[in-house]
Design goal:
Blueprint: E1 8-11, E2 14-17, H1 28-31, E3 35-43, E4 46-47, H2 50-64, H3 72-86, E5 96-103, H4 111-114, E6 121-128, H5 131-134, H6 139-142, E7 144-147, H7 169-181, E8 186-190, E9 196-199, E10 203-208, E11 211-215, H8 224-233, E12 239-243, H9 247-251, E13 255-260, E14 264-271, E15 274-275, H10 283-296, H11 300-306
Parallel strand pairs: 7-8, 7-14, 11-12
Antiparallel strand pairs: 1-2, 1-6, 3-4, 3-5, 5-6, 8-9, 10-11, 10-13, 13-14, 14-15
Amino acid sequence: MPQYDKMQAYHDGEFKPLFEAKLSIWDSIIMLGDGVFEMTRTFGHKPFMLDRHLDRLWRSMKLSQIDPGISQDEVKDLSLKVLELNKPYLESELDFFIRHDVSRGVVPYYARCANTKVHPTIVISAVPLIEYVARVSWAFEEGIHAVVPVQRSIPPYYLDPKLKTRSRLHYQMANLQAQRVDPRAWAVLMDEHGFLTEGTSSNFHIIKGDTIYTPEGRDILRGISRGYVAEIAEAVGLKFEEANIEPYDVHAADEAFFTASSYCMVPVSHFDCRPVGTGKPGPVVKKLLAEWSRRVGVDIVAQAKAAEKYL
């Protein structure tokens, strides 16, 4: 088993035991959802596209007007240090999720309650990538039931979805609504114009013929894994295009899938209670997964199944 009690995290200027890296109840990320974050996985205990995740973290901070008081290169060095500190305490068959959480710090009104000066909160941790992959391992063979909930995406004139922030109550509401239809369903949000946007903490894609279609990058989080699929599509003979996708298009698709940093990609077998294609994970998604696994030197599906015994 992973030795959580020996793992370390970086918290506001120092390394400390993971269990001691705690936020104040007065922190803005708790009180207001006022914080940004990134989650970067490893393959074979090596970071995967860490620079791209940090680039996006810095864009999110810039647009949120959060000054971390530290450079991107320094955060990268600290991230690698946290990873090295924790490698001895995780089995080689498992991988890490490197987490970056940055907030504006304690809300000024409550600085005295917190007994601290107001300064940005920075937490960097490397935690075992178990829950995220083991709990979806079944989906690689069965496929996900994707459901469009009543909850809509937040329009960009309220909050730009390209920022990766902790303001995510709308995601949670969408999940709860989808799970009323099917306890294992995943939500796919729709915008105010009737176009599909994204999943909750994931990007959504469909396949028709030799082309992968994904919602336009206008009103979504532009996922790192979404971008990587675009890169590997050509290697397996596919085109990759952004498009306005309606529910009708999903019902007419051959296949569909979600992407996210943790599980990389999982197939969708049903959409709003109807089968997508054959109603089973299709050959194109399997081909993409195989190519991804080959490039990173880790069997993504096998690793997810192996993680089940650590739950």
